[in-house]
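Methods: example folding runs. The two proteins below were folded one after another, and each record is reproduced exactly as written to the output file, sequence line first and structure-token line second.
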Amino acid sequence: MLNAKSLAETLNGREYLNEITREESRAAHDAGLVVVTGYSDDGVTICGAIVDEIGAWNGAKFIVCPDGILPDFDQLCDRRDEAEMEKYFRNKVLARKIEAVWSPSDPDASWLIKTDIPHETFDIMRGGELFCRGIVFAISELRKGA
């Protein structure tokens, strides 16, 4: 049975741009797992049970919920879509923050992904150097609430 720990162990030590295969991403989706890694010098990639990309020049903070990335409240207000607002408030109580730290001092890497969601970590390498410390977590952890 695929879980966060076993997937993180599988991904640990992979090379940048070969972090996860399509088959592994599908298996993560089917198992309800989310994988988050830094990408290039300005992005974050999310795959598995949530699929998205976040612009992250100099790092980023974003909020995940069981339905994916929680949208910006101000933009929702501008659209005045009642159904989307209801969905936002349902998801907000389950939402948790993830921070993508660009060029952290500890560890010495390009990216460090941090969160208070229970998770496992793994290291992505680039030319023998640590490029990113990524995370894997179960989407069910979000359903437990903050």
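Second run, written to the same file directly after the first:
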Amino acid sequence: MALSVAHARFREALASAGWQIAQDIPLSDDGAANPSRLLIRRGRVQRQILTYAWKITSEGRGRVKKGRDDLDWRVQTTRSHDGDLLAPPGQLSAGVGWFEDLGVFAGFDPWVKRTTGSSSSVHFTDALLRRGAAEAWAEEMRPDGPTCSFQPHLVDRFLSWLMARSHEAVIMEVDPLEYSPEGEDTTLIRLDPRRGWRYFDLRAGDCLVVRHDGQYIDSSVWQIEVIFTDRQKSVGGSNRPYLHASCRRHGVVRDEAHLAELTS
């Protein structure tokens, strides 16, 4: 596999932190770099990381913010497979960009940012990258989810940040576009992530309660069995992602105050 600069820098950071690179294999049979399957070891600790790594580039002409002279930045998420960015269960998924000008990485959770499209982008602000360079570690919450920036010697902190993002099962209030119970025990819930980036954070095993116009529709608690993306063209021609969650009834909460406490 021909290593990209970003991937090589990420390997170097891991090695400097004491990790042995036991395996580094591209997912694609043709050797394309993104993603690759990294197996790293340090003492008795072992991590499997599905790694996407790209060079950070300018957002391009016409993207300068009003009243500012600087540009923000992005990675073009070109990859060797079709569909969303991958985040397989049982291993860590890492999205990293390398910014040569400042010698820092930018990082994100590929699961949360998975619906970029095959050659679209993940964006980082100039302020985030500069804070990462000056302070060694910086975080920023964007409208589409969290990002971070870090100097190479804090690669372990980045791995911990990703592991914290791969959360234990949660229960979340949702305001769906569609709520279609199928009998007593199953339902399909359709979500618009523009109503809240946290919808992108939902995973199989998480639980949902349905709320609309400030009221719980019912007291059902639904557990996600499968969640997948459905892209549809808007009137303006943009390709917008929606989420479909196939759920099974997990339980019923009779006390609305308790339900509110669970979802807080």
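Comment on the second run: The first strand starts at residue 20 and ends at 26.
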